[in-house]
Fold each of these.
Amino acid sequence: MGSTSEIGASIIEAGASGDLNQLRAIRKKVGDDWEFRRICDQYTAFSTGWSVLHHAVEIGHFEMCRFLIKKVHVFVDPLTYKMDAPIAQAAKRGHVEIVKFLIEHGANVGLANIEGFTPLHYALLIGNMELMELLLRNRVFVDAQSVVGTPLQIALSRGNAEAVKSLLSHGANPNYFYSVEETPLGIAVNARSFECLKLLLEAKADPNAYFNGLSPLSAAAREPDTKFLKSLLAAKADPNLLREVTDDDLQDIFLPIEEAATVRNRAAMEILFPVTKRLAHYPNWTIDGIIEYVQTEEFLAKGAERVLRLLTKLDIRGMQYACNEDLYSAIVQYRAATILRPWNTKWLSKLSMWEARLDLKIPSLLGAQKCVRLMPDLPVPVQGEIDAAANVTFKKFLIAGLAFSLDPYNKDTDHSFRVCLFDYFVWLTQMRF
């Protein structure tokens, strides 16, 4: 009935249009069931890498999915160019019965795409509780990281207390964060979900844990509703916590009471004032005196100076760790620095490169995306004595990118492309800064 590519194109077209009768007719014309299955498994849409099964689950065609899996016996977990399996595609569209059917026939519930999204992430992003419970019953990994965080972080950001309760009951870590630097408690405060905050505290979330910037208590100090602040203090959140981030006395920037003062939250300050130790550089240690002082040029200058000192220390220590090949410690320093200076592409590119070398795919990708957004006019190296080394880097990048595009499932080409990509980013930022 034509070449293999023509048959494959017809199969994809039938899947995309939901024409099960056409798909059956193609199978009959091919004649050989093994050959038909092979074409279904190997032929994908050129632009997306979608198989016929991806198309069937996308449109929610249960009978076509049943036909492909039970009659044709296609592979249940083919991956697109973005590494999405059919079960992820079905979850993204909220097709619960298809997800259930795929699980029953061996689909891997924990497969993550290039951005870290698993079916559980998609279930929470669309707010489908039935789908979430189905996945949790099938022992999906509850703390999987994505570019928008863990499933728990997603549920918290949406104030979905029911989902938070279920995730915690299935073992979600109430303190875990990485790609998204905010702790679960901090997200609950910013989402203004008091019910979520209570659930986290009941699950023994640490009220004093945070990466950098605003602690959960500092975030609560800026909120007009003081019940967040009171609950955190009752859970032993420290109002005097200035956590050290280096070996000397350089610490985070402001206390919770100062955060409250900057937004003139007098109600929060009245709660914090009796439990906050006096800061010596304040000329008038009263609520009115603190509010008055945080509006002064002196306060702003001191804050800017502390930020600059902190960034300098983090940069120096990060490079020291990197030179000693302690990339994990270097990453910690630069992640703290990029929170305070999220537009510094030189730091972002270093961070992405080191994360790529350690195979931390999700944060590495996230950093690369930030670089691209911040530098949309990325320069292309040109021939010349100044750019000779850069051209070698650029050529390696193009060759590796071509090899990866021809065989995206090959681990060796994937690794080579990733390394060359971030070497290229490093060169670009050195040229720009």
Note: The chain has a mean pLDDT of 84.
Amino acid sequence: MVHRRRLRSAWNRVDSGELHQAPRQWQPWLSDTGSLTQKIECAIGQKLEVLVLRDCRQNLNSDESRYFHFKISRCRIREVLLCTNGVPLVMARSIIPTTSSSGSNQEILRLGKRPLGAALFAKTRMRSKKKSPREIARLDKQSTLWKTCFQQYADLPSVSWARRTLYRLKGRPLLVSEVFLPALLHY
């Protein structure tokens, strides 16, 4: 009998009860189903600044690849800081498979300093109200996503909370991970 090693993931579905393990102040941010960009902009009363850290093609880590059922190994990766007055509130990592950015979805590759959420929610507002799969995780220095984010943003706290959501843009998948930074709690 052959036993396959299962990949271990720190990610848990929002409805798994893991949400209650998160500090109370992070729970509304982790469980919110709307546009994070919109929620923050309403809270701060101004548009977010987007600082693009990386926007290139690269390989996925094993946990991300598993999320796409191992069908995709190389994608466009976009990592940004969402800031207000130069203060980072959220670090976002978006995974955009080649098939998701072709045809009428090509505009997703030309976001520049605009947040992905604004474009994504503008496109999906008229779609069905089916909930996108959402997971949350407590990230620490052992977490793959924490290590990846730390390479781009050295001020990342040693323990952070994050959520990731599989969105669909005209039926094509996009995986968005959002790591919440301490300054966000001021809002």
Note: The two ends are 54 Å apart (CA to CA).
Amino acid sequence: MKIRQSNSETLTVKVYIHENKKEETFLVSIPDIFFSIQFDYHLFGEALTEHLYVHLFNILDEKEAAELALRITQWTSEV
């Protein structure tokens, strides 16, 4: 499990990223905002960013959701 911290102007949260290589999935959890999501390896790049944004937009404002979605996409591509 990887733990990253996302810092923005109005939001600082820890992001927990677990990679399940056997099932080819990622589990991303952000306890501070009561958010978690699981997605397959086949979802990556711009499609992943958009998918994350749609879910984060329900919790955060537009700017924070877009910024966090992009960071999570970058972090999962590094793992």
Note: The beta strands are 2-7, 12-20, 25-30, 35-40.
